[in-house]
Amino acid sequence: xxxxxxxxxxxxxxxxxxRLSCVASGHTTPRYGMGWSRQAPGKGREFVAAIxxxxxxxxxxxxxxxxxxxxxxxxxxxxxxxxxxxKPEDTAVxxxxxxxxxxxxxxxxxxxxx
Length: 114
What we know:
This protein is mostly beta strands. It is 0% helix and 54% strand. It is built from no helices and eleven strands. The protein has strands at 2-7, 10-13, 18-26, 34-39, 45-51, 59-60, 68-73, 78-83, 92-98, 103-104, 108-113. Strands 2, 4, 5, 6, 9, 10 and 11 form a seven-stranded mixed β-sheet that branches. Strand 4 (34-39) and strand 5 form a beta hairpin.
């Protein structure tokens, strides 16, 4: 089992930045791909970004390309999501996942005010 705990969410004005963190614990291995998804009120969960186990193979949703950056530190079992130029439409609960969605965190709320 792998446990994922997200942090770093909060309230920010449009144009601001936040950095989300996701720490993995339990039966961890750095060879999991990891990623972020989000779910806005009244909408389904959508893909945001993903990263390969070695830090390569980064992918982004079109809606966040050029604004969000995913990275990882395997020594700390942590994946990050740097979010810049935030927009009100980025408001959602952000979830970390590992191993292609086998494991999920509990989510962290991001609210962007206009």
